Amino acid sequence: MSLTWILIVAGLALGTHLMRRAGPWIGRGGRISGPFSQRLFEIAPVVCLFSLALLATLLPESSHGDGPSVARWLGVALAGVLVWRRTSMLSVVLCAAVATALLRLAGLG
Amino acid sequence: MRQDVWPICSAYALVGLSFGAIASAHGVPGWVVPALSFLVFGGSAQFAALGIVMAGGGALAAVLAGLVINARLIAHSLAMRDRIGRGWPALWRGHLLTDVNTALALRFDDESDRQAIYDGSGWRLFAVWVISAIAGQWLAGWIGDTRALGLDAVLPAILLALIRPQLADPVTRRCALAGGVLALIVWPVVPPGVPVLIALSGCLLAWPTGKPDRAARP
Predict the structure, then answer these.
(1) Which carries the bigger pLDDT value, residue A108 or residue B168?
(2) Is A109's Cβ below 8 Å from some Cβ in B?
(3) pTM of the model
(4) Cβ–Cβ gap B39/A13 under 8 Å
(5) Interface contact A15-B67, CB threshold 8 A
(6) CA–CA gap between residue A11 and residue B7 (Å, rounded)
């Protein structure tokens, strides 16, 4: 667990810093060419984060060892509706947590 | 500048608090939250790494996913290359690069205004991010049973909120849906952490077709 995290922190820190510093090194006149590669820069993170959101919602949590949580499914579904309606981040976070907590209190697990 | 930066800072604080609390609730070693927040300073990438490790994935998958998410910083870095510069100041000026201060700096025409807003919003966001993540970690230790409080629903909720602006574009939406469904199909049969990387093939739906792309750029 600890070694995994050492590798993650080192890899992400180094890689991200190099990306942040890339601009001045690529220099003047440098730009990302081609419409598809430009789109990839925008789309790839969204695809990655969306699939992660789905997995984090629907999969049982390995660290708890219990089954899938219906309360969490419903809590995140509510959050999804609020996000779609462009509700503020604070309301989204609070509603997701409170709804999930209440459903659990009602015995949904 | 103040009126623009502080609302964004409060959003950062909320996401940072959640990151620290969720990481801590899942038994991530104590030094990881401050180290990631200080050295990586990228909310989406940090959450992605955390999500992959929580799902049982390894370091390679977590780093790859995080770097894919942060790759957009190369484009920002090109736009901000005169703000970052070279030499020693570039060490911290480069580190302060985010979506937010890039967007704010581009609003001004004057070079010195641009530099001031880039640096000023950059270090404020950085300070807020690191402090709130540590505070979240401390808070989780204080409240104990985070599952009873529904904190496990907060991670996906924040991920959805973070990508909401880009989901307005129909092509991006289609790619995300395809990738997400693909990840759910493959997760029982591939090692943990890999489904997110396989999901990236959903991007192929953005391959330019003969038809003109009506999607509005943000």
Answers:
(1) B168
(2) no
(3) 0.84
(4) yes
(5) yes
(6) 31
